[in-house]
Structures are given as C-alpha cells and as structure tokens.
Amino acid sequence: MKHLIAACTLLLLAASIAAQTASGVIDGSVIDDTGAPVPRASVSLMTDTGRVIRSMAADDRGLFLFDTLADGRYTLNASKLGYTTRTFGQTSPHAGAVVVALATNGRYRARVKLPRLGVISGTIADDRGRPISAEVRAQRFVMENGQRVLDTRILRTNADPQGRYRFSDLNVGDYVISAFGPDGELRRMSPELIQRAQQAVQERLAPLPDTDAARDAPVSYVPVYFPGVVNRARATAVAVVPGEERSNVNLQLQVVPTIRLQGTVVTADGKPGANLNVRLDSPEDGSTWTSGQTTTAGVFNLAPVPLGSYTLVAGNTRRDLALTNPSAATITVQTDPGGSLTGRVVFDGTSPRPECRRISCRPVLRLSHPTGGAALNPLVTGVMDEAGPIAFPAVPVGSYLMGIGVPLSGWTIVSAIIDGKDLMDLPIDVGPRQDLSGLIVTFTDRSTELTGSAPVGGTSPTADLVSIVAFPTDQRFWVPGARRVRVARPDTRGEYRINGLPPGEYLVAVVTNFDPETELDAARLNALQSGASRTIVRAPEPR
Question: What's this model's pTM, rounded to 2 decimal places?
C-alpha cells in the first residue's frame, strides 16, 4: 500500500512539475484590412478541434498573449462588433484556417486579420417618384458546388416613411439589392374609360359594366432590382468593401402589365399531378418569379408576373412559355415520363455494414448543371440495401451526378460506375422512358491520405498566406464542385494533410494569397500546372 501511495505521489508531482514548466507562448495582434490595430477585440485560443481553452480581450493596440502553453496544435479566433469574425489564416468566410503547431516551450506570433464590415443605403420611391415604405432585400453572391450563386439567406429591412433604408454590418462581397411594392393586382384604366366614368358620375348614369372596367390588362407592382430592372438576371451587383458605405443605391418601384398563369398538371399516364411544386423561372438566370403547388386535382394558380418569356417548372418537368396574351393564361402541362437507374452496391472493408432497414441509406442524383442554386434543383432520391440492390425508380429527364444524401457512419463512396463512367465525377444522361442498369456503387471504410510540407516563414511567406491546391492531371475533372480538386492550409510548420481524395495522379501547387471562393476554376488550375509537382494517390491497403 505504501508503495502504491508513493507511486501516485510521484505521478502527481511529475504532472505538477510539467504544468509549472510549460512555457509555450502564442501572442500577436488583431488588425483590420488596412493593417491598423483593432483595439479591445475578443480573442479565443482553441484546440484544432474547436474547443475553447482560454479567451481574453486584446489591449488598446490590438495585442494579445497566451502563455504557459503545452506543446500541441492550436487555433485562434477573433471578433469585434463592426468587423467580420475570423479564425487565424482565414482569407474569406469559406477559406480554411491555419493551425499553430506549437513546440515544447515554443513561441509563435500570429496576426489575425478582421476585415471591417460595410454598409449599403439608399431610398425607395413609388412608381410616381414619391417616397414609400417598402420591403428591401439584399442577397450576397456565394460559391455553391463551385458555382457563383445567390445565397439562400436573404437580408430584409423596411424603408421608413421617407423611403430611406440601410443595411449595416455587411460582409465584404457582391450583393443584389431589390425592392418589393404592395401585393395584389391593380387596374390601369384608359383615358376613354376615365372620361366615361366621369360622365357617368356627372349625369348620374348607371355604373360602367364590369366588362368595360376590366377591359384593360391588370397591372401590378413587381420586384425591382438595382439599378432599376425587373429581371434579376440583368441586375447590377453592389460591391461591399471593408469599412465603406455604398450610398445612393436608390430604387423606384414599377407598375407593369401582368398576367396570372393558371392551369393543370397531369402525369405521363394521364393522372392528376397532385401536390407538385410549380414555379415560373427566368430563362436567363433561373431566378424564380412566382411559385405554388398543385391541388390534389393537379390544379395550380400562380401570382401575377410581367408579360414575357419564362420556364415553367412542374415537379421535374420544364416547359418554355411565352406569356404575351392575358386571355390565354390557362394551360395544361403533362410531366415527362423519365427513366430509371438500377444496380448493386459493394462494401469494400471489414467494418460492420450499415443496416439500411434501420437507418437512412439515401443515395441521391443531382443535376450536373443546376440553375439558380440547390434550392431550385431538388435531388432525386433512390433506395439501397446493404445486401446489394440500389435503385432510382423514377428519374426525370436530365444529366446527373451521384452522391449520398446522409453520410453512412464509417463508410464513404469510392465510385459509382456504369458503362465505364464514374458518376461521382462525370454525369450520365437519362432520357424519357430510358431504363439504365448495371450501376456498381462501391463504398469503403478506408481513406486515402496525401501529406507533405511547404516552405513557410523565414524568407518564405508565413503560413497564413499559403494554400495548397491539389488537382487531378485529367482535365475532365476540372469542373465546379469536383471532389478531386481540393484546397488545404499548412500548419505553422508548413505541414499539410488532405484526406479522402480518390486514387489517381494529381498535381500539387503551393500558392499565396489564394481565395478559393473566386479562384478555383479551370483557368486558374491551368495556370498552376507549370509550377506544380506530380504525385500518385494510391488506394489504402485493406486493414
């Protein structure tokens, strides 16, 4: 017993001595986009998994210090009202952070950059130029699956009675600003009808028949986009830069002739298309003008839109329409019959297979060239069983890539092969009544790993300025959202790791001041080829 007590005492003493001698330091400064200090910013020291260890306020010069640190891997996060919250090394909201790899009793000095937020302001007037209190919206362009689309998150504010509005604390980026007038249809009477109505009042005649009063087409307020267009595809984006106010972003509401589209949707076999989503999209950029849902009888009735050309989307069926005659605004739409895709799944590994009868095993197909963002392009969901079969019984006509809706614990898709083509990388076309079979989807419980090091610090750029871009030598895979194109950040020692790349031949480039939101395209990858190094990512050995 005495020996046990002595051993425990020695262990506690050793731990105490180690804690007392831990003298690692991470210090530095918080600066804005101009390099000026950000006083009293909140700074947090975290593990590389995101757990907060300590927090403090920077001093009036923006300086901070965390001492008595053990060796390990750390990250820093800073924030302050009026500035964009950032983690050390982040160059944009979606860029990766840089890990501080602190040696025993080591020291690292970091600069955390917080860009200042921006402002957009202006006035709203009605169709006669008078100030009006109307709803104003702002949407920022973001990257989604490698494509530049408008964020589904919409900022809203209301202009005051003098028509003034203001969006403050905006992240840097490009925004589409729009204004919305009162809902509902109006009637714009011709001079002839106005004269007849005045005469009827003066002579106490009977009111004009409804057919006469409604002889002109209805008009409505429609959304107006800066600088004064009613089609979002023709809007001019407003650039928000750090610390500046974009004023005089003014809009005047417009009243234009409109048409209310109604009709019926029937399926390919003639049955009512019940409870289907229906919308009218702009053929120019895929933005939605109006949307609704069919009844159980397949009937829909959409809100008024300006006369013009549209794409009607009913379920997954698309039809081009030219809406020019208000009296011909009733249509019948028959949905496309679509096709099917079937095959089997293979689980390559020793881990327990997922029990698809108990959990969600949801393979999905997504359009290879979506329009207007993911919200307007619903996934096609299939069914699968760990014992082998996989099927997409109803696939609308289109070109598709494959994925998994909900990750399967311990398993990832390696490939989805049909006729020698991997649907994880290259799309397959599904035509009307086309039944495709022979799909083989392979899952694995192992992951590839690409590691290396880049020169950082000293005479080289510091780690917070460096990015690692890995991309395949096969240019067919240089497409938006490709799984074979990856960006990683080195830690402060220059070491990096990229997990999960499909096996194959790759190029690895070390770049500085790289923005993955705007630079990750085929033209940039082509420019990086000459300075990149070649490497082979091999399939991991079985466990």
Answer: 0.78
d(CA 366, CA 499) in angstroms, rounded, equals: 24
Tell me which residue has tokens 């466990």: 543
The alpha carbon dihedral of 150, 155, 159, 164 has a sign of negative
Angle ∠(265,270,274) on CA atoms, nearest 5: 40
What is the Cα–Cα distance from 466 to 437, expressed in whole angstroms?
46
Q: What is the model's pLDDT at position 6?
A: 55
Alpha carbons 474 and 537: distance in angstroms, whole number: 14
Place of tokens 């739409």: 333
Long-range contact pairs involving 321-324 (C-beta distance under 8 Å, separation at least 24): 321/261, 321/280, 323/259, 323/261
Q: pLDDT tens digits, residue range 178-192?
A: 999 887 555 554 555
Strand extents, DSSP E, 327-483: 330-334, 339-348, 363-367, 380-381, 383-384, 389-395, 398-404, 412-418, 421-422, 428-430, 435-444, 449-453, 466-472
What does the pLDDT read at residue 201? 56
* Residue 412, SS3 per DSSP: strand
Q: How far apart are CA 164 and CA 141, in angstroms?
A: 24
Question: What stretches in the chain show pLDDT beneath 70?
Answer: 1-21, 145-146, 184-217, 326-328, 369-378, 543
Q: How far apart are CA 238 and CA 249, in angstroms?
A: 8
Distance CA 478, CA 427 (A): 13
Residue 502: closest CA among 471, 476, 541: 471
How many other C-beta atoms are found inside a 10 Å radius of the C-beta of residue 278? 24
Closest CA to 341 of 401, 426, 387, 386: 401
CB 41 within 8 A of CB 79: yes
At 331, which amino acid appears? I
